Amino acid sequence: MDPYCLKKLNQERLARHAAILLTDLGDGRDRVVREGDPVAGPLRDAINQAFLSGTSKVVEIEGRSFFLNVHLPPPRLVVIGAVHISQALAPMAKLAGYDMEIIDPRTAFATPERFPDVRLFAEWPQDSLQARPFDRYTAVAAVTHDPKIDDLPLERALRAGCFYVGALGSRKTHAKRVERLKTLGLNDEQIGSIHAPIGLDIGAASPAEIAVSIMGEVIKAFRARSVQTALRLEKTA
Asked: 45, 110, 125, 219: most buried by Cβ count inside 10 Å?
């Protein structure tokens, strides 16, 4: 591999950007294509599909063979709130292969004793998100029931295009949340993408059952992102 391409690919991976190492099998030349980069001709469709599926493969384009080596960021789950639901959710996320972190400024709740082996940030979301911003491979679950803590990360998640955004609360609570988010400049389409009430409708009652419903909904959203992304690509084509 070209050292320049290796350096660029590593930079994209560290920044949690999806990228493909595109190699022309005829002459051995390669280049790095970041998700969203313009690509001309029929190769564009093959690259878009590779980003959607996350599967590396060889493709034949106009008599030439290319190897598409796909590198997608690992899915990340950020939970706003160190509550009982979060305690049950942490081991589920780990088993499902998600990098999970919890943000909660309430130091009485956000303690290592309650959340062993979890990336825990006992600070306000606006401080945490400066160093670790959301991206399209991030799922965000706001579960504190406190607008002072939940609203800002919800706004940031919607603007970042996170593949999943969910918020705990009744429909009445969510209606008030909608009005607050509108005052922050979010439109109806953005706000309408919030999963609220959070989680799959399985009749969950206990914190553990709610955690199951949230994890299931996150996984469903991630697996469906190919459809959502395809629709977005059609709009911008």
From this structure: 125
Question: Could you tell me if 27 and 105 lie in one domain?
Answer: no
83/106 same-domain check: yes
Instruction: Pull the structure tokens for residue 44.
Output: 């564009």
Q: Are 155 and 186 found together in one domain?
A: yes
Residue 234 has a pLDDT of 43
206 and 168 housed in the same domain: yes
Within a 10 A sphere around the Cβ of 145, how many other Cβ atoms? 14
HSE toward the beta carbon, residue 192, CA cutoff 13 A: 3
Show which of 11, 43, 71 is a domain's final residue: 71
Q: 3-state class of 143 per DSSP? A: coil
Structural domain harbouring 159: 76-227
User: What pLDDT is recorded for position 230?
Assistant: 44
What's the CATH number where 146 sits? 3.40.50.720
Provide the domain count of the chain. Answer: 2
> Closest Cα partner for 5 from 38, 28, 39?
28
Whole-number average pLDDT of the chain: 91
Torsion angles phi and psi, residue 10, rounded to 5:
-65, -35
Residue at 97 is within a domain: yes
CA distances from 139 to 25, 144, 157, 167 (A): 36, 16, 8, 11
pLDDT at 213: 98
- Reference 134, options 110, 103, 111; nearest CA is 103
Listed residue (78, 98, 56, 73) closest to 11, CA to CA = 73
pTM of the predicted protein model: 0.81
